[in-house]
Amino acid sequence: MLGIRAVRSLRSALPKAKKAIVIPQATRTIASSSRICSEQPPILLGPGAKPGEVPTDFQQATGLERLQLLGNMEGIDVFNTGPLYMSKMGTLKEPVMVPSYSEERIVGCSGWPVESHDMIWITTNNHKEHHRCPECGNVFKMNFLGDPHAHHH
Q1: What CA–CA distance (Å, rounded) separates 15 from 110?
Q2: Would you say 133 is a known binding-site residue?
Q3: CA–CA separation, 106 vs 131, rounded Å?
Q4: What is the mean pLDDT of each run of 10 residues along the chain (153 residues)?
Q5: Cα(144)–Cα(153) distance, integer angstroms
Q6: Which of 36, 49, 90, 136 sits CB 3.0–4.6 Å from 96 for a disulfide?
Q7: What Cα–Cα distance (Å) separates residue 64 from each residue in 69, 70, 79?
């Protein structure tokens, strides 16, 4: 456990360390589902650290984690993790539409009106037309936006 002296010295060293860490700017704009800005995909392999240095998260990140970090640098929510806004309760005739680029998406229902029950997680997919919350009866329907002929693992 760190002592008070160690915490204070760490806090005083942080501003200096932040100045010393140079994060290279992305060489191109991220292509997201809402906009495509380049024909080349982003580089998903980090540069790594120099010998004898401890790498930062940005330097050692690869794959989807790096894609998310590059998106965050440009202010893009790559995985669309924001809340699903509901202006009304979903019914069988007018369900709450859940956009997805994947074959399934997990939705958290906190009830109607909002937060009327504990969070219940519902997996939506294209195999069933409607998915109903067992607590409040809210109905969700997945709106698949991806390529239906794409190869999935």
Answers
A1: 41
A2: yes
A3: 11
A4: 46 48 44 48 75 86 86 85 81 91 87 87 91 93 83 61
A5: 17
A6: 90
A7: 9, 10, 10
List, in order of start, the domains of the chain with CATH numbers: 24-79 (no CATH), 83-153 (2.60.260.40)
37 a known binding residue?
no
As a whole number of angstroms, the distance between CA 53 and CA 47 comes to 13
Whole-model pTM: value is: 0.54
Euclidean distance between CA atoms 105 and 128, whole angstroms: 13
Single-letter amino acid, residue 113: P
Whether the CB-CB separation of 148 and 103 falls below 8 Å is answered with no
How many angstroms separate the CA atoms of 13 and 133, rounded?
50
Longest dimension (CA), the chain: 63
What is the amino acid identity at position 82? G
